[in-house]
Amino acid sequence: MAECGANGGGSSGDSLDKSITLPPDEIFRNLENAKRFAIDIGGSLTKLAYYSTVQHKVAKVRSFDHSGKDAEQDHEPPYEISVQEEITARLHFIKFENTYIEACLDFIKDHLVNTETKVIPATGGGAYKFKDLIEEKLQLKVDKEDVMTCLIKGCNFVLKNIPHEAFVYQKDTEPEFRFQTNHANIFPYLLVNVGSGVSIVKVETEDRFEWIGGSSIGGGTFWGLGALLTKTKKFDELLHLASKGQHANVDMLVQDIYGGAHQTLGLSGNLIASSFGKSATADKEFSKEDMAKSLLHMISNDIGQLACLYAKLHRLDRVYFGGFFIRGHPVTMHTITYSINFFSKGEVQALFLRHEGYLGAIGAFLKGAEHDNPNQYSWGENYAGSSGLMSASPELCPTQRARSGTFDLLEMDRLERPLVNLPLLLDPSSYVPDTVDLTDDALARKYWLTCFEEALDGVVKRAVASQPESADAAERARKFRQKYWSKLQTLRHQPFAYGTLTVRSLLDTREHCLNEFSFPDPYSKVKQKENGIALKCFQCVVQALDALGWEERQLALAKGLLAGNVFDWGAKAVSDVLESDPQFGFEEAKKKLQERPWLVDSYSKWLQRLKGPPHKCALIFADNSGIDLILGVFPFVRELLLRGTEVILACNSGPALNDVTYSESLIVAERIAAMDPIVHSALQEERLLLVQTGSSSPCLDLSRLDKGLAVLVRERGADLVVIEGMGRAVHTNYDAALRCESLKLAVLKNAWLAERLGGPLFSVIFKYEVPAE
Amino acid sequence: MGTGRFGAPMERHGRTAATSAPSAGEPELGGAEEGRRREPLRRRASSASAPPVGASAEGARRDRPGSYSGPASVSRQRVENLRKKRPLFPWFGLDIGGTLVKLVYFEPKDITAEEEEEEVESLKSIRKYLTSNVAYGSTGIRDVHLELKDLTLCGRKGNLHFIRFPTHDMPAFIQMGRDKNFSSLHTVFCATGGGAYKFEQDFLTIGDLQLCKLDELDCLIKGILYIDSVGFNGRSQCYYFENPADSEKCQKLPFELKNPYPLLLVNIGSGVSILAVYSKDNYKRVTGTSLGGGTFFGLCCLLTGCTTFEEALEMASRGDSTKVDKLVRDIYGGDYERFGLPGWAVASSFGNMMSKEKREAVSKEDLARATLITITNNIGSIARMCALNENINQVVFVGNFLRINTIAMRLLAYALDYWSKGQLKALFSEHEGYFGAVGALLELLKIP
């Protein structure tokens, strides 16, 4: 059955300090703008959800209103930047012990400004119990929602919107958590909710699900029977006892029945023949630990067996486990996983969810917000505002655990546009954007965490410098530093806290933290200046290229793309040079490049291809602003256009480091068009199209791209994808398989990474791939 | 021979708890290798054990006291031929489970005067001892009500006796075999169950008895099919319950297993084995669960301090499990219509015991009842899922967990019918836990 559970008996926290241990305004954030609430009250934990809006500062770029080309002056920047306020939607979820419920409701009441909200959808076994309290405190009418419907709605939501939501758990392996890549189609699946009892639900579509079975032997049996057997009252303490026990003292094993013969028979003597089979005696005392362990195995095995039987009957292989029995407890995740592996002979995988505890609250919220149709949007987990998965140490004593979990937060940002798969992915279900899994690769993890730590002061400096007119920039930058630093420390100890740890997630977390403290675009002025310098060189570079013979020109264009890519403030090696020597030029960058043959060099194959018929349409993911985009990418685009290939140029929707944003790219293209008739006509005739990626990351996830981009790619029949830069072509997508030709280009501006790939700093990756027929 | 002599060494405070012990089995964490599953166990067990009885006797080392004693090679040949068809008395079948040893003994009633005269003393004394007593020591019991009369086996007429004693008294049994000089009668003893392996060495070194180890599932199937075919002294072996949920109207009715296949066989011993039987020789072990009779009795001992299976059942019969379990109606106030769950269904076994007040308010009888209901419902649920997966609609429940356990049988009957919407039928068999031992006896007699 659904989560109900503790009516008093084991509600933890009675020995804990009843006051809120964190400053409430850091927990209930953005409460003043909160519009809609939902609440899920379980046996011991309350989960509150609310929708709010966040006001951000964003850097907007705008072209100067020139009446004509001649108005341009040499000293003038190419466009103007203004900082504006933007309002975005965010979902807040807070999880806390039921003990705090009254204090929390009081706090919310005091800070609630919005009066439109009249009703609060509530779910969970405790919703009834606390109904009057909520109605009295918040002056909102409690609307009870069906527990299972909420759970399923919540489950669908996290599976669709949070990358790396689901994971398999493998005790004693490194890493313990193995996150799953999101499938485009999450249905059908089986949800096994282990609350006080067990409910097994088959979910077929967004709105269609069916209770196909259940069992009365669940978390309540472990808790209730465990309390009777061991006189231990609390669920967490029972689990702790179980983690220390030896079940073979209580259970009758196969070897107890067969003697030593099981070995010669090839039997596993350790199989349990009869749970509690040895306790059928009055002469013996059994330890609490042993009995708790035996009980844990008995219940986990039983749940696993039934889950497998139902999965088999309904031919499903994706089984998600949830409920308070599972909820992040390594002990039960382990026993359930073991049981599933045993009974399904490896055919079914036990999957767990990072935000399992929030499903009910999310579902109740969605139910209450149905007329806004929140499912039409894509959402993203905000790493800055979310607590991440709790420590998984089974040895952690229960009181500690309860304390550390006093308040747990999840924040999700509503993305302005829906995100979808790139239609050109060879196999969306097996696509993994990231090249290196840092949860798996301890050496790489150590390097990158240190790298990000060392780069932090530089980022802080740049953030402060980007807002010279702001009085509190230094203070905000200090807070940013503190936040990101603590995230890095969390990730050192719990690399699995936010899903698979990757260079991408480290970069994204930094961007989220910068945004959190109103540094929306620390590089806006640097980008503006570089774009200005590069635009001035554009014609000169193009003329030089045009003077070359065809074959020479192709190599020069390729080198140009790569040389441009050396200009990257995000890479420490380059930012050092750029800081000390602003005159560092395009030509010098070319000299820095490795001589051919490059580290990865399929240029000859590419040249061969260019001798053939033109591509129909190229999709290019641009990287940096300035020289990279203007002197590297645009001449290459121009050549493609001349060949008769249409070009879709995709740039980030929001800022990240010095990466060019979509709005910057529009201005740059306009300026180039003014100088170059080829680009001009291509823009006019829509043979050159500028689109946004939907992302604000220095990396690239081809499974979460702006829907408009995907539509265009389909319409135009793109048959070439060019991915440029270390973040997009090496940290991510290096191994991505596409259904069409692709070019992955990067200069390795990180000595460690270059060495890992077997080359020196500034090694070149020129990877041209043609899909197998 | 008196009871004391058989029983003396067995005088212990044991209990005649549940059940035979099939290789039920659930995984143990960490240790067990995944590759080793129970399916291979069955095959290995049958191939590793079971040397043909006749073959091993071919090299008979001892002079066998029996019907013939002629030294001539011709008469020897005749002895061998006859012997191959029909082994010498006594005829036993043994099933050594995790908790109980089940022994079947065929008592020939057609002994001729000549035979009687030639019958060796030890053989006679065994027969008299077993058939003239109903209890052996403090723990050995003959289930007189199960005795099958006037059975013809291998051309001999006689009665089949059913005896059980706790597995922990096995050493005493072997010692008795030694004292009675069993080895002078037989070199081979047909035995099944895990204990056939566990005690093999003891039989050999202490009792000078060689065990013929037989696969327990083969024996189980053989035993069931045979017993069903001979009936129960003119009555039907198989039965079912009509109106199982209604104490007034509930009726135990005979069931004729005309078309036994396919059949789901659920053997509830200390643990539970579930087999799908498609024909006499074609069956597979589908799964098993470690939540069986041993779990019921073990938990009852811990929760109530009871000491015998009978006591546990007696307590359960007086208890109220709804005080212990959390029902659907306790959570939803009635039926949970969204999912079609009736209010009386158990939502969480022992779920009320999460609350301190409710823990203090329950009696031992309530706890015993809840334990029984929990284990029984779970077995019913797993059996039902297996039946669905295997597409079988008749389910026969056997094993000593069901001995004098009408509550469990009626609950299984009701649960199967209710949750399958009448598609599945729960069947039971009078000789509950003795089929393995019968199968071992049939192996001895080489009855196919």
UniProtKB/TrEMBL annotation, chain A:
The keyword GTP-binding does not apply. Activity is strongly promoted by Co(2+), Ni(2+), Mg(2+) and Mn(2+). Activity is inhibited by EDTA. GO terms for cellular component: cytosol; nucleus. One of its GO terms (biological process) is coenzyme A biosynthetic process. It is found in: Cytoplasm. InterPro entries: ARMT-1-like_metal-bd_sf, ARMT1-like_metal-bd, At2g17340_3_helix_bundle, ATPase_NBD, PanK_long, Type_II_PanK. One of its GO terms (molecular function) is hydrolase activity. Its cofactor is Ni(2+); Mn(2+). It comes from the Eukaryota. Keywords: Acetylation, ATP-binding, Coenzyme A biosynthesis, Cytoplasm, Hydrolase, Manganese, Metal-binding, Nickel, Nitration, Nucleotide-binding, Phosphoprotein. It holds the Pfam family Fumble. NCBIfam families: panK_eukar. Phosphatase which shows a preference for 4'-phosphopantetheine and its oxidatively damaged forms (sulfonate or S-sulfonate), providing strong indirect evidence that the phosphatase activity pre-empts damage in the coenzyme A (CoA) pathway. Hydrolyzing excess 4'-phosphopantetheine could constitute a directed overflow mechanism to prevent its oxidation to the S-sulfonate, sulfonate, or other forms. Hydrolyzing 4'-phosphopantetheine sulfonate or S-sulfonate would forestall their conversion to inactive forms of CoA and acyl carrier protein. In the N-terminal section; belongs to the type II pantothenate kinase family. Belongs to the type II pantothenate kinase family. This is 4'-phosphopantetheine phosphatase. The gene is PANK4.
From TrEMBL, chain B:
The keyword Zinc does not apply. Keywords: ATP-binding, Coenzyme A biosynthesis, Cytoplasm, Kinase, Nucleotide-binding, Phosphoprotein, Transferase. Signal peptide: none annotated. One of its GO terms (molecular function) is pantothenate kinase activity. The keyword Kinase applies. It is an enzyme of class 2 (transferase). Gene3D superfamilies: 3.30.420.40, 3.30.420.510. Its main location: cytoplasm. It comes from the Eukaryota. Residues 21-30, 46-58 have a biased composition (Low complexity). It catalyses: (R)-pantothenate + ATP = (R)-4'-phosphopantothenate + ADP + H(+). Pathway: Cofactor biosynthesis; coenzyme A biosynthesis; CoA from (R)-pantothenate: step 1/5. CDD domains: ASKHA_NBD_PanK-II_Pank2 (cd24136). One of its GO terms (cellular component) is cytosol. GO terms for biological process: aerobic respiration; angiogenesis; coenzyme A biosynthetic process; mitochondrion organization; regulation of bile acid metabolic process; regulation of fatty acid metabolic process; regulation of mitochondrial membrane potential; regulation of triglyceride metabolic process. InterPro entries: ATPase_NBD (IPR043129), Type_II_PanK (IPR004567). PANTHER family: PANTOTHENATE KINASE, PANTOTHENATE KINASE 2, MITOCHONDRIAL. Belongs to the type II pantothenate kinase family. This is pantothenate kinase. The lineage of its organism: Eukaryota, Metazoa, Chordata, Craniata, Vertebrata.
